[in-house]
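ugh ok fine here u go
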Amino acid sequence: MLDGHVLVDAHVHVPRLSSLTPAWVDWARQFGRPGVLEEVWRADGTPDPAALDRLFADEGVDVALLFCEYSPKATGYQLFDDLLPIVEHNPRRFRPVANVNPHLHFPIARELERQLDLGAAALKIHPVHGGFRPDDAAMYPAYAVLVERGVPLVVHCGTSSFPGSTNAYADPQLLDAVLRDFPDLHVVLAHGGRGWWYDAAAFLAVSRPNVWIELSGLPPKRLPEYYARFDLGRLARKFVYGTDWPGVPGQAVNARAVASLGLPDDVVPLVLGGNALRVYADLAPAVP
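structure:
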């Protein structure tokens, strides 16, 4: 726990470095804490589960959601199965998140079900890096599986600077048909509309009970600026804490910055962990 609050980091990357493009490693070194790659990753590029577990314990992280990504046009491959040794090391702290790409996985529902059967707490899609629209009909069988199993969808909703990105696919308006056709699907907007779509993301979150804003990649002190047209205290009731680690200096410092924004007392624990425990699949048993 961190300062008496359950802390869930809903956006973490711990890939095998050898399967990535050089741009990903450059990003981690530019925005992360100096030396973190050497601290957590071994010389062969594989992550050390024990080192990661110690670091996250020191940062006060109760649960971390580990992302994978199949985006050869942009960042390379962050394979789902590479996450499993980390989860096995400490299944109370670490949970994997599924990823599928309609250009690579067919039948797409079969691959999603495989990852869900291995413990995925959500499906995260990356239209910007993967090169597809989130409302592509090819994704609908996957969305149907999520509704059937009660698992949320996380969508990259923000600009990306990685070579090969298609930022137009991050527009939250592209989710309108998905939300219409799957009204029971919980949708988490990772990066909260970063870049050009803060208003659209916020409007979806306040107008739909099943839409959430995940804060990864957003400096906490700038949240009042990004969402200036909205009542931040009300909007924050739909916030989910996430960092995009290792591309941040630290999880605890970001969480404390969120807690110092002057939000209502009952909202802070929702942002730091309560909302994630509600939205993601089967997280509650992972918290002591």
